[in-house]
Amino acid sequence: TDIEDLTRFNEAIDQAVTESVAHYTKTINDSRNLFLGVLGHDLRNPLGAVSMGAQWMERSGTTDAKQARVVSEIKLAAGRATRILNDLLDLTRSSFGTQIPVTKTENDVAALCQEIADEFRAVNADRKLQVATKGDPLVSCDRARLGQVLSNLMGNAVHYGDVATPITVTVAGNDPDAVTINVHNLGSSIPRDAQKSIFESWTRGQDGGSPPEHNTHLGLGLYIAKLIVEAHGGEISVQSDQQTGTCFSIRLPRK
């Protein structure tokens, strides 16, 4: 009888500890997500003011080359900070079990890829981005959200890819039910172990070798990209090795 009572007592203690740990973990996670949500929301307005001020100064023009460079740097920095806050808000939304909202309309994804590639060419004159289309590029999607995904993938290709070789973006629309977008670059590959977790939050698959002060990646980009693609009912995957390079693939249903 004593042994049975002791066993039941130990089981009760184990259960109480398990429940306490689970409650504590949930409380910490909820507090963190709430903090990130408030931080992202409250910083958007002052950042927007900084960005609008820089754009106004850029349009007004200046004869001083140094001032023009500073204004350009302010505009780029505000843009990077805004993208980071958007990622944090998307992370918070997903942590509370809310799917990223998408508003679908019919879009030419090849034209969207070309538009984003042009943006990267404008600020990376030494890099070559090629966009190729096969078949019908029309798909029902949220243009802004899909542009966020493509910008992340092309940005990674520019950041981690070999500067001497082109980045290729291929839109394949031969399938009547889906469109596939591939973003490929040569250069340092993603380790096989990292490929298994690369779409998880706070994860980075490669080390671009940039100094810490120039690195604004939080390891959220691919996680947010996965959430957006899944909100469209699609899939995102990666293949990477030293010989063939790195290729991210997005498959989106047409409807």
From TrEMBL:
GO molecular function terms noted in the UniProt entry: phosphorelay sensor kinase activity
InterPro entries recorded: HATPase_C_sf (IPR036890), HATPase_dom (IPR003594), His_kinase_dom (IPR005467), HisK_dim/P_dom (IPR003661), HisK_dim/P_sf (IPR036097), Sensor_HK_Regulatory (IPR050736), Sig_transdc_His_kin-like_C (IPR004358)
Reactions this protein catalyses: ATP + protein L-histidine = ADP + protein N-phospho-L-histidine
Keyword set, alphabetical order: Kinase, Phosphoprotein, Transferase, Two-component regulatory system
EC number(s) per entry: 2.7.13.3
Residue ranges constituting the Histidine kinase domain according to the UniProt record: 38-255
Pfam assignment, any one: HATPase_c
Protein name: histidine kinase
Organism of origin: Bradyrhizobium yuanmingense
